[in-house]
Amino acid sequence: MVAKIAVFASGSGSNFQAIAESIERGELTANIGLVITDKPGAFVVTRAEKMGIPVLELAPKTFESKVAYEEKIIEVLQENNIEWVILAGYMRLVGETLLSAYENRIINIHPSLLPSFPGKDAIGQAMAHGVKITGVTVHFVDAGMDTGKIIAQGTVDVVEDDRAATESSIHKLEHELYTNTLQQLFKN
Ligand code: GAR
Description:
Layout: E1 3-9, H1 14-24, E2 30-37, H2 43-50, E3 55-57, H3 66-79, E4 84-87, H4 96-101, E5 106-110, H5 122-129, E6 133-140, E7 150-157, H6 163-187
Parallel strand pairs: 1-2, 1-4, 2-3, 4-5
Antiparallel strand pairs: 5-6, 6-7
The protein binds glycinamide ribonucleotide.
Glycinamide ribonucleotide binds next to helix 1 and strand 5.
């Protein structure tokens, strides 16, 4: 069975691209029905269009409430028979509306060894604390900020005073860990 997924992203979309390329290579057994971004014009839109994957750009502020925004998302997900929601740099807390429609079917990747450094700029937080090792976590999404059940983690050595190098190692690991973890999850 091929898992039908939607990828949610707010920014560059390198994780989206890694997932899409892994599917193209036949390694990840999934089908990206659509990409949803809460940031119209984000670079992920360009990446998705280049790969011929439908994108929906939905600015939350154009809805009267978060519930209305998520109800619209659910409507589109259901129209596209989406089974799994894959957050890939989606910088917004998922609300109860979407959580209850996709219980245990929403997955996130975060650039730290959770529970350390949840929230925004996890890499900057880790470097500011002077940790020597950081990493990447793939987890189920719940109502908290990066608090759901952990599925997989990997570690990365921090390159002291070199954010770009540390970030680059984290992204490389993210791309491998996310696709491998999703493959395990979809197989079961
Ligand atoms: C990734 O590092 C992802 O782990 C992080 O945003 C980045 C998106 O990069 N997500 C979070 O911090 C979620 N709390 P990308 O747009 O290139 O995939």
